[in-house]
């Protein structure tokens, strides 16, 4: 792993908040182990191994029933670790893959059988070299045939430029990590309001109310991120999902305690109805129906 890479928390606390029955951790990753599933040569970071067994252990410990495992850039378009984890989890996991435009429908169908239900388009400049929009559009055309959706990861300052492209995508779109707002500007700032307006005007767009630990400036207990998550849960109760982001690649300031991240949930989704929608009904509709 990279010299400055922080490994995941070795012994997270037991959360006080008990997730509703059937809760889904809808954003997490598996990394390696590198001797079986090597990292991609073009990767921008080398993580510590975070194998499926550790993920499943954490799922049970935190009180979740299911995972959505998202392909991260350190594995490039090599989805073998993801597929291996999905097969091992059986019906308890679904996946989001990263694919090249020349992928065939047969390979996509094999992935579908393993539990993949979406692809991820990553626009974060520190993580990937830019991919031409036509390439993404040609992938979108293929995966649309399987009823999959597209997860997009971008930073707030790049949203404006991306909007015309996002509007061209033919499927459900899920935006990672609240659209990565600058929380120092506040949730009423025009930047976050523009993101809210985008979701209001495009009913195919969903959002993950994830990653207070990445967005915070104050640090734990992430109070500066609460207004952002709460606004998304209130405004889009049937289009918002939640996940741990375990094993938290590229965290530089601190490594979050996953139990504390679970305790963040009732602060952004205070009512049992909101919690059930966020953790059960919405992810089940998107990934298991
Ligand atoms: O865990 C995440 O979702 C966020 C990441 C890593 C990532 O997305 C990737 O490597 O593909 C990040 O901001 O470094």
Description:
It catalyses: 2-oxo-2H-pyran-4,6-dicarboxylate + H2O = (1E)-4-oxobut-1-ene-1,2,4-tricarboxylate + H(+). It comes from Oricola thermophila. Keywords: Aromatic hydrocarbons catabolism, Hydrolase. The protein is α/β, with parallel strands linked by helices. The chain has a single domain, classed as Alpha-Beta Barrel (TIM Barrel). The protein is built from 10 helices and 8 strands. It has an 8-stranded parallel beta sheet with strand order 1-2-3-4-5-6-7-8, sandwiched between helices. The structure holds (1E)-4-oxobut-1-ene-1,2,4-tricarboxylic acid (NQM). The site of (1E)-4-oxobut-1-ene-1,2,4-tricarboxylic acid has 11 residues, from loops.
Core attributes:
alpha/beta, TIM Barrel, 8-stranded parallel beta sheet, binds (1E)-4-oxobut-1-ene-1,2,4-tricarboxylic acid
Largest sheet composition: 8 strands, parallel
Q: Give the spatial strand order of the biggest sheet.
A: 1-2-3-4-5-6-7-8
Main CATH class: Alpha Beta
Q: CATH homologous superfamily? A: Metal-dependent hydrolases
The overall pLDDT, averaged over residues, is 98
Helical/strand content category: alpha/beta
The span between the termini is 38 Å
Kindly estimate the percentage of residues that lie in beta strands according to DSSP.
Answer: 5-15%
Give the CATH architecture: Alpha-Beta Barrel
Query: What's the overall geometry?
Result: globular
- Extended strand count: 8
Q: What is Rg? A: 17 Å
């Amino acid at each position: 792993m990279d010299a400055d890479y922080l490994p995941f928390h070795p012994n997270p606390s037991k959360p006080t908040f008990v997730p509703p029955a059937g809760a889904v951790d809808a954003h997490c990753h598996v990394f390696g182990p590198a001797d079986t599933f090597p990292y991609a040569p073009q990767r921008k970071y080398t993580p510590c191994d975070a194998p499926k067994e550790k993920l499943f252990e954490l799922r049970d410990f935190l009180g979740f029933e299911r995972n959505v495992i998202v392909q991260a850039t350190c594995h490039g378009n090599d989805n073998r670790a993801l597929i291996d984890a999905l097969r091992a989890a059986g019906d308890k996991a679904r996946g989001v893959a990263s694919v090249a435009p020349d992928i065939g429908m047969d390979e996509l169908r094999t992935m579908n059988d393993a539990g993949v239900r979406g692809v991820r388009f990553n626009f974060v400049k520190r993580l990937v070299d830019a991919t031409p929009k036509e390439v993404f559009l040609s992938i979108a055309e293929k995966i649309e045939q399987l009823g999959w959706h597209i997860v997009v990861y971008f930073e707030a300052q790049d949203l404006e430029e991306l909007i015309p492209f996002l509007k061209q995508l033919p499927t459900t779109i899920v935006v990672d990590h609240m659209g990565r707002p600058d929380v120092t500007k506040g949730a009423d700032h025009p930047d976050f309001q523009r993101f809210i307006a985008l979701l209001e005007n495009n009913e195919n767009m969903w959002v993950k109310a994830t990653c207070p630990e990445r967005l915070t400036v104050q640090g734990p207990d992430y109070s500066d991120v609460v207004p952002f998550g709460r606004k998304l849960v209130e405004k889009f109760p049937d289009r918002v999902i939640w996940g741990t982001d375990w094993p938290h690649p590229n965290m530089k300031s601190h490594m979050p305690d996953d139990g504390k991240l679970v305790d963040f949930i009732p602060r952004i989704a205070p009512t049992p109805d909101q919690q059930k929608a966020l953790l059960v009904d919405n992810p089940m509709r998107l990934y298991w129906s």
